[in-house]
Amino acid sequence: MVPDSSADRLVEPGWAPGAQVRRCRRLRRARRGLLSPAVAGLPVSRTPAAIPNNPVSMIPYVLRRAGCLTVLACLLIVPLSSACAIEAPDGLKLNSQEYLEMPGLNVMLASDYYPEGHQGGVSIILNGDRIATNGDVRLNRTPGQWQPTPVVGQRRVDPATGEISVRMSYPDESKDRKGFNPIVYPDLKFAYTVRVVPAGKSFRIIVDLDKPLPEAWQKRVGFNLELFPGDLFGKSYLMDRHDGIFPRQADGPGRMTADGSYAIEALATGRHLMVAPESKTHCLGIESLAGGPLELIDGRGQYNNGWFVVRALLAPGASKHALEWLVSPRAIPGFLEAPVVQVSQVGYHPLQRKYAVIQLDSHDSRRLPVTVSRLRADGSLETVLSAVPPEWGRFLRYTILRLDFSSVTKPGMYVVSYGKVRSNAFKIADDVYERHVWQPTLEYFLPIQMCHMRVNDRYRVWHGDCHEDDARMAEVNRDHFDGYSQGPSTLCKYKPGEHVPGLNQGGWHDAGDYDLRIESQTETIYGLALAWEAFHPTYDDTTIDEVHHVAELHRPDGKPDILQQIEHGLLSVVGGYKSMGCFYRGIQEATMRQYTLLGDPVNVTDGRVYDPKTAPKGTFHVYGQPAPVFGEKGAPDDRWVFTENNPRHVFGAATALAAAARVLKGYDDAMASDCLRIAEEQWNRVPDSEPAPAAGAGEHSWGMPLSLVKVHLATELLLTTHDRRYADYILSKRAEIVAHPDYCGWFLGRALPLIGDAGFRSDLETALRGYRKQVDAEAAETPYGVPYRPQIWGAGWQIQNFGAHQVFLHKSFPDIFPRRYVLNALEFILGCHPGSNTASFVGGVGANSMTVAYGFNRADWTYIPGGISSGTALIRPDFPELKVWPYFWQQGEYVLGGGTTDCLLLVLGADQLMNQPKGT
Question: Which residue ranges does the record assign to the Glycoside hydrolase family domain (predicted)?
Fold first, then answer.
């Protein structure tokens, strides 16, 4: 093979490929002590510096003497060394955020803790990309979402040495067979400390046990580091004498273990691993100095959403230094992250305030002009504005510049450029929000998420008519998974295991999974009802046949799609209520195997109501009954329906039904009547004196007094019935309301004319002015003009919820709340947000959007048009991340409820506010 030009520059005259290979063999033998340096061909004057005991410092010398073949071969046999510290005075240092930093490299320890979501432990950000994470002691070789994780204890930082350490222990009692997702922990208790110690441009990972592990667990507990697969497909790895290519799919062979799980054979084993040596941006070296040899394992062999895993067992019988690795990422010298131009991927109304946000590496001192250009028909660009923007300041780890281009109002297509970095094209026009923005959610996403329906889309079938065997009453006193549990009673006339009729109709799959949660169903109904009432979108592009359980996309049927979707959700909620006399908590798959199915939900169950008299006998059990051989006809694979005593969910559901009763009047009078009857029953039945917050409370009411959740219900009942008793209840809660204007103001504003109390209005407006000051202060903390308080999940849903509430606050209180917060929130969702990936969070909306997302079709690396993801997550403490990866639920998952309808309200509201302007 002829070396490429980059290799030629490294080759000295007369240096031939054959000689390179022979030289590498001599280097290997010299490393093992089998040849002297002179015989190996190295200048004796450079010994021992030329061949140190840990010769990563030898690599620069090898690079000067060899072409790319030699480099790759030598990397295979050259271990890594902290001797880089001698040559790298600018190595890793502890920064003010308490992680290790140098140009091109950040190393965190326990800054995050969400191991099931691949965030936590030792994390490595290399050349602007998080390439590795979850460096920690694990009991499983390739752990998945429901495997044991440790308890995080005290984290310590030593400013003198730069060492970071964290105390950890097993088991986590809060998760052991209990909690949102119960995990079965073995009978093993131990504690340990993970330490990260800088070593020049490398760092050491050291594990110290409090005491040696029990004999039965020797050679079973190891340290794992997970490598992000999306960066490595098709790249090479070198491990001692084993090398290969990171496969795009998980390839065998493997074996079945005693517990019935699959264990894939390691890709390679050894003491020295080099990951992607040919890559300028993703090369990483690991050397095992203490503990077992390294295993490179494809974690996708057991779980589709797994990562590549580097694992080594802790040294048997050891306590101190039970494991030590030397990790040497290859940072680009003087690395600076590329500038990022952040604008809406859709565009702007001519009259709205427009900002282009320029994100710069904090060490980038360049200040270039930002240019706004209009696209001409011949493809050329017409410069309409060019200026060096003012520096906004520091946000997260970046320096931010911000250009106000509000003066650009002429309709057309535009781009924004900063140096050689150019945005995608976006539109400036009065009708920018009228088409291709909110419609995909209504004409694609909501129909595709419909349960109990076959969904046809021209030649395509999105999924079959699923879950027609819904549902069996859940067993009592059971912790299930995904937050479902059943208390000591079924709370209805049905006994555990009995079929509950009326549930095999309506509803939407909750998210990337297929359950029907009461809060997601009723929040969706409520949001759609608000959208219809406020904006009256008569859009019709779908046929929905509830009799035959078929939906046809792109086939109008003469009925507004939004009303049909409201009706579809109510068929499930009202149907369940009529059968059981109460709202369901949710309807969930019977087994974990069904819950984790990727693909068409018609394959989750057989569609037949379970009959124990004719069922096949399984060898596994669910709740003490035979469980299905997956896909077997007649098996007990029906979903379970759960009930609960949760007044917050009751009031939330009743609120949605009260609103739906208004909008369905004249469209489906029978359903409207049922909705109002049920809402009033719950008003009369459920008091507001329960302690708050109740277990499992929906996100919309966390931390609020229960009386305020009932105020929300009272507001919708007042708007529907005009019954004075609801206004009187609202007035009786004046003190609680004015103490929480952020929660109550947006929905109460719509009812103030019916409440008819000038003093109450005055008190509420005073409280809302205080809330406006809070919003102003929080929005000023970000260059995006919105409050930004990310948790583990991306901030998109939180910000679009803020924006949807601002729509109603502006409509009710235009003198207090300007329209700009509506528009700022929308711009954030559509692409003007932190990080290097500026995709719109709404699939298929805008020039660049999230077209790889966490929907039910995620295994195909694709998306559902109109599905809204939470988007860019914060890798703590300061790294915004939005990866192209289908298995990050905390970045890419779709959800029903406000995660869907808030975006509809936000876009419809922006369009109305800009074309019927009030305020600024």
Answer: 457-851
Check residue 617 and give its pLDDT.
67
Between 141-150, 728-737, 772-781, the lowest mean confidence (pLDDT) is in 141-150
Residue 843 to residue 856: CA distance in whole angstroms: 14
DSSP class of 287 = E
Q: Find tokens 């005991």 and name the residue.
A: 53
Distance CA 649, CA 223 (A): 42
Strand-pair partners of 119 = 114
Cβ atoms < 10 Å from Cβ of 36: 12
pLDDT tops 50 at residue 322:
yes
Domain(s) of CATH 2.60.40.10: residues in the chain: 340-428
Nearest to 794 by CA among 883, 891, 902, 900: 891
For residues 622 and 592, the answer to whether their CB atoms sit within 8 Å is no
Residues with Cβ within 8 Å of 762's Cβ and at least 6 positions away in sequence, in order, are: none
User: Do residues 899 and 804 lie in contact, with contact meaning Cβ atoms separated by under 8 Å?
Assistant: no
Q: How far apart are CA 608 and CA 616, in angstroms?
A: 13
When computed from its CA atoms, the radius of gyration of the chain, rounded to whole angstroms, is 30
Structure tokens at 226: 């997970």
Number of neighbouring beta carbons within 10 Å of residue 110: 26
Whole-number Å distance between alpha carbons of 501 and 495: 13
- Cα dihedral value 540, 545, 549, 551, nearest 10: -30
Could you tell me which CATH class the domain 340-428 is placed in? mainly beta
Cα separations in angstroms, 266 against 99, 234, 300, 526, 691: 32, 17, 12, 51, 53
| SS3 of residue 350 by DSSP | coil
Q: Are 821 and 779 in contact (CB under 8 A)?
A: yes
**690: amino acid identity, one letter:** E
820 and 785 Cβ atoms separated by less than 8 Å: yes
Beta-carbon contacts of 51 under 8 Å, excluding residues fewer than 6 positions away, are 30, 31, 37, 40, 42, 58
Residues contacting 477, CB < 8 A, separation 6+: 486, 487, 488
* For residue 77, pLDDT beyond 60: no
Does domain 93-329 fall into CATH 2.40.160?
no
Q: Give the helix ranges, DSSP H, for 165-313.
A: none
Minimal CA–CA distance to 401: which of 366, 425, 353? Answer: 366
CA separation for the pair 307, 25 (Å, rounded): 33
* Six-digit token string for 259: 């517990």
pLDDT value of residue 822: 98
Calpha distance 632→646 (Å, rounded): 36
> Which tokens hold the place of 434?
């009228």
- Give Cα 299 to chain centroid, integer Å: 19
Domain with CATH 2.70.98 in the chain: 93-329
Q: With a cut of 50, say whether residue 673 has pLDDT above it.
A: yes
Please state whether the predicted TM-score (pTM) of the whole model is above 0.90.
no
Q: The tokens of 265 are what?
A: 């054979």
The number of residues making up the chain comes to: 920
Question: CB–CB of 450/508 below 8 Å?
Answer: yes
Best CA proximity match to 277, nearest among 49, 506, 124, 70: 70
Find the DSSP H helices in 42-165. Answer: 59-65, 68-77, 84-87
Distance CA 98, CA 365 (A): 24
Give the C-alpha separation, 705 to 903, whole Å: 27
Residue 636: C-alpha distances to residues 57, 397, 590, 608, 613 (Å): 63, 53, 8, 9, 11
State residue 149 phi and psi, 5-degree precision. -130, 155
Position 779: which residue type? A
- Taking the C-alpha atoms of residue 582 and residue 500, their distance in angstroms, rounded to an integer, is 12
| Alpha helices, H only, 609-757 | 647-664, 669-685, 706-721, 724-732, 734-739, 741-748, 752-755
Q: If DSSP codes are grouped into helix, strand and coil, which group holds residue 16?
A: coil
Cβ 513 vs Cβ 482: under 8 Å: yes
